[in-house]
Amino acid sequence: MFDGDGMLHAVTVSGGRATFCSRFVKTYKYNLEKEVGSPVILNVFSAFNGLPASLAWCSVAFASFLLRQYDPRRGVGAANTSLALISGKLFALGESDLPYRVEIRADGDIVTIGRHEAFGEPYMTMTAHPKMDAETSEVFTFRHSIKAPYLSFFRINAEGIKQPEIPIASLNEASLVHDFAITRNYAVFPDPQIVIKPAEIVRGQAPLGIDAAKVPRLGIVRRCAESDGEMWWVDVPGFNMMHAVNAWEEDGGDTVVVVASNVQPVEHVLDRVDLVHSSMVRVEINVRDESVRRRGVAAGNLDFAVINPAYVGKKNRYVYAAIGAPMPKIGGVVKIDLSLSTKDSGDCTVARRIYAPGCYGGEPFFVAKEPDNPAAAAEDDGYLVTYLHDENSEESKFIVMDAKSPNLDVIAAVKLPGRVPYGFHGIFVPHNTNS
Ligand SMILES: [Fe+2]
């Protein structure tokens, strides 16, 4: 499920017309394997299924390397996870490689420009979930590695120029750090029970595994730090954060609040995602005494949550989350009002849309009513957009929901000429990008 080549699906709305386009991201992996006519590059999640399969995959990759078909310095990723707009440029991302720059042309076509090596060096990677501060247009991001330093934090300035990296030496093993959060002053990283052990490959096992004895942690570092010397970690037992929703500071900066989905049981994240329950939780970290409090903010199996992007790193009220039916299928979307969350509150869901039987959606994405000035109106004054597939009629649609309405009413729908497979993350791109 996690290894397929990245395919982008775009609906371009302009002049009262909607244009649909689906294109593979033309990664080095995609182009090489198309030229050779068979798989060459190891798939991280599926290649290591027992010793014979692992040996076969390693033999193919090594033979290709010897035949000079395969140059590992050019990356291994499928750019299949997410999209980000960085300094006005659009990128397709997958955490096992550097981002690939893509463009959406005026006619709606999607074009791959290439691997963006200005964000790293040969063999390097970058997270699929960078965070942009809407006020400064700076982007905060990181990469993880199978060798020390296992995590490196860095900033890309408003002009798109990568700044020096902060190696996180206090992380003493490779963990699957899929996402993180920023506040006005801090970056918050998870250290979950999902660990990466390349040595397992020689035993025919996947390099990703679960360390049940490990206590999950959160690491806090100032986002303008010049070294990780001031980074500190707090234990958060039972909290395995895959996706952060948002974070901010309260109490004059004495409390860092993180809203995120917590996956349980973590053992099934890698092999049986349909058995995973993701809970939406609020974690409060006291910066002074390093104590931690945690409470749920909504009932249900919720992940792929989004907010109004103008509020990244700032206190926000509304979260929109996909309902696992079970995951990876998404049976609807909820709207959560975080202002209702108190130590005694329960479910803070204030609106819900359940799709028709047999219909499943993608990640909802919030589009402000004035996308060029998303902070101009109320936080929830905008739309939720997603793809919807009907397994009964085999039809796919692009739908637009009113994020302010009590039932997240569908106010527009575009019937698509082809299937949009269930996927991961999306983005809204203003019309003037790439112009
Ligand atoms: Fe993700």
TrEMBL record:
Keywords (alphabetical) are:
Dioxygenase, Iron, Metal-binding, Oxidoreductase
Q: Where does Fe cation bind?
A: H129, H178, H243, H425
Name its co-factor(s).
Answer: Fe(2+)
Q: What's the domain of life for this entry?
A: Eukaryota
> What are the annotated GO cellular component locations?
chloroplast stroma
Q: How is the cofactor bound here?
A: Binds 1 Fe(2+) ion per subunit.
One Gene Ontology biological process:
carotene catabolic process
Which InterPro entries is this protein grouped with? Carotenoid_Oase
The molecular function terms in GO held by this entry are: carotenoid dioxygenase activity; metal ion binding
Q: Name one Pfam family in it.
A: RPE65
State whether keyword Oxidoreductase applies.
yes
Q: Which family does it belong to?
A: Belongs to the carotenoid oxygenase family.
Q: What is this protein called?
A: 9-cis-epoxycarotenoid dioxygenase
Instruction: Name its species.
Output: Salvia splendens (Scarlet sage)
